[in-house]
Structure of C4-dicarboxylate transport protein:
Amino acid sequence: MLVDHVAAGQDDQQPPKKPKFYQILYVQVIFAIVAGILLGHFFPEFGESLKPLGEAFIKMVKMIIAPVIFLTVVTGIAGMKNIGSVGRVTGKAMIYFLTFSTLALIVGLIVGNVIEPGHGLNIDPSTLHSTKVDEYAAKAHESSITGFLMNIIPDTLVSPFVSGQILQVLFVAVLFGLALAKSGDLGRPVTDFLQQLTNPVFTLVGMLMKFAPIGAFGAMAFTIGAYGISSIGNLMLLIATFYITALLFVIVILGAVARYNGFSIIDLIRYIKDELWLVLGTSSSEAALPSLMAKMEKAGCEKSVVGLVIPTGYSFNLDGTNIYMTLAALFIAQACNIELTLTQQITILLVAMLSSKGAAGITGAGFITLAATLSVVPAIPVAGMALILGIDRFMSECRALTNLVGNACATIVVAKWDKALDKEQLDLALKHGIVKEDA
């Protein structure tokens, strides 16, 4: 077997030195998160002042996202034997995204009706007002499906690398990759150069990840220092409901699709644990995007599939955000003693499906899409979002974690559908942690 062969090969050479536990990234991030929570709790003002540490780390990672996506997609498409597979992969990915995003919305709606986390709060809607909510509502009115689609097209060929908008970078990368593939031998020197450039760029990603514990420490110290653990007490039921619902969605629904496609969702979560701890510490799924792409490629998914599915999924496959939207909408209605009819709830579901695409890629998209959804359902006051504004930071971590697992699962499933998955390598990576070092 291949596992035995790998083990035998390691016996002939010097076995790789196993890192000490404190040298492992996710262990360092865990310690940083715990230290940040303690510091933020006992020294809140000092903890709040550490916000720049978290922001600086996220900015460093965002700095490298555009080159990673561009190089992965261009070299992947340029190396394709069948260019038509670009549209095929994208189409399959979109079918997957639409299906599971809708399921996530339905799950949030069902759980909200069963548990009723807002029941008994008896809030008078007329007493609710927040200038911050007004800002989100204004952004929601600005976002639309047409505007979102138009925004995918950049002003110039190089402007996406300055603005850092993921879908614009992806759009340019796909076009450039197709152009290189059609250029044949004339485009080969450029393709070879970009393939060589990929190695130092991913080496840079590894270097930046060494700062992850510092970023997680600063971000967590700020969160606890600014908002305080006590601030979540009166809304604990909503937070607990959301976390449990997201966990069940991952284990049951994503677990079922994973099993059907020949892998375990638990093994996948274990494989991407570094990225999950990083997201938990920084509350940003973008912080893990470059390393997630590298890991999926090393797990046996073809480069072109990874490059197309993950960046697109960051805008279209937001399972955690969708669960949050329907659950939060019902929470606000229940807190204000507003009885919603089945028709109104279905309207929320349909509007949320559209608004989640219109605000994709916008900072604070979860809150903006909620505002856009509520503005179409007059029965629920948009001002009711003030009830959950204070705990949104704690909710955003769960949204980001669920989104990350959903996109990792989607990459493997779409790769398998398109016969672009090395199943033997996937099993080695997920079960034994043995990856392709040349990926």
